[in-house]
Amino acid sequence: VHMMISDPAKYIDRFIAAGADMITFHREAVEDPKPLIYRIKDAGVRASMAISPATPVEEVLPCLSMLDMVLVMTVVPGFGGQKLMPETLDKVRALRHSIDETGLDTDIEVDGGISADNTGLVTSAGANVIVAGSAIFGSQRPRQRRRFSSRLLRKHFRGGSFPQGFSRAMGRAPARRTPRALPRWAFRVHSAGGLPHRASHAR
Asked: Distance between CA atoms of 149 and 33, rounded to whole angstroms?
């Protein structure tokens, strides 16, 4: 659950009770993130922190060992259809360096302006969880959705399977695919309504 709200602590218990297995809150929404991280982890739920483009990556580093995932917003949060801000990938690189250097197992997620044309850039920078919305749902034509999925497969997968939700979102039956290269790789779909918010997760 990505809590893009100003007072996440007020609502966390409700989302956990509803079955959330991960809570992502924004660094900008809390004065001290550590108590909130402890609260999430104590409930047996994975903890994730998001940072907006204007927030320095140094705001995350003191908590990095406590987090299961860091979400780097690659656009200014608020509306879909924006272009990826290339400078945000420096944060992804810095996070990947810190994670690898310290031997952590923390995922790096990117959200905003993701398309088949730039997934190579974000994964090369070190992201292993990809969020897409407008690239899939910006067009109502199934052919364009399928083209997006096939380009992702060529870039990141060979042989094996995408989960069924992804295939439903793409408008076709599941195909057998397996991950290569990255030890963990996930693809999530966000939509404004009616369609799956998390369509695929491959690990």
From this structure: 36
pTM: 0.75
pLDDT tens-digit map of 96-142 = 999 999 999 999 999 988 887 888 899 999 999 888 776 666 655 55
Strand, helix or coil at 109? strand
| pLDDT tens column, 13-29 | 999 999 999 999 999 99
Burial 42-51 (b: 16+ CB within 10 A, else e): eeebebbbbb
d(CA 26, CA 8): 8
- Give the pLDDT of residue 113: 86
Helix (H) or strand (E) holding 89: helix 89-102
Cα distances from 59 to residues 51, 54, 65, 73, 182, in angstroms, run 8, 11, 13, 14, 26
**Model pLDDT, residue 115:** 81
- Cα 114 to chain centroid distance, Å, stands at 10
CA 81 to chain centre: 16
Cβ-Cβ contacts under 8 Å for 88 (sequence gap 6 or more): 53, 72, 73, 74, 110, 112
pLDDT digits (tens, 9 = 90+) for 160-172: 444 444 444 444 4
Is residue 111 a contact partner of residue 89, using CB atoms and an 8 Å limit? no
